[in-house]
Automatic annotation (TrEMBL):
One of its GO terms (biological process) is macroautophagy. It comes from the Eukaryota. GO terms for cellular component: mitochondrial matrix. Pfam families: Complex1_LYR_2 (PF13233). InterPro entries: Fmc1. It comes from Lachancea dasiensis. This is LADA_0E10792g1_1.
Length: 166
């Protein structure tokens, strides 16, 4: 196998490991963005309802009803959206710049080629191991990434109580 082919294989491994490691954070980010969008659209919807109640003019109510239905549909679409199914999770955004860094000034002698290949393999392995480490820390220390409300619910459940829903 030529050095260019080996470099391409290692590059693909690195991209795969970067995509896998970024997946969880991207899902969390998309979920938070969706929550913010739903809150903003709900706020706009309430303001539109207030405006509609104050106008009481029949000519404007049909206009408001159209906007209300659009906002409601958009809110429902965002709530039903599953970020884990996003196609953006399967791509690495900076792959072109990474490709340029790896393939530019590729050394010609065998020693330098082997060092660069080993270095890239080490980077890929580090990314995989770091992802596994984070999963283990989260698994064995679940309270680290819990929000305050979830901690209170679990503490109450531990002593046989239930937190009332507000």
């Amino acid at each position: 196998m030529s050095s260019n082919q080996q470099l391409l294989v290692v590059y693909k491994q690195l991209i795969r490991s970067l995509v896998k490691s970024n997946k969880r954070s991207k899902i969390a980010q998309i979920t938070e963005d969706n929550k913010k969008q739903v809150a903003l659209l709900t706020y706009r919807k309430f303001n539109l309802l207030r405006q509609q109640a104050s106008d009481q003019a029949s000519s404007n109510s049909s206009k408001h009803n159209g906007h209300l239905s659009e906002l409601t549909n958009e809110i429902e679409r965002l709530k039903a959206n599953d970020p884990a199914r996003s196609k953006a999770l399967h791509y690495y955004e900076n792959s072109s710049s990474l490709r340029e860094m790896i393939f530019q000034n590729f050394p010609g002698d065998a020693g330098s080629v082997n060092k660069r290949l080993q270095h890239l393999k080490d980077i890929s392995g580090f990314v995989k191991n770091q992802m596994e480490y984070e999963e283990l820390v989260e698994r064995y220390n679940p309270g680290l990434k819990m929000d305050q409300e979830e901690k209170v619910k679990r503490t109450a459940a531990r002593v046989g109580l239930q937190v009332p829903d507000l």
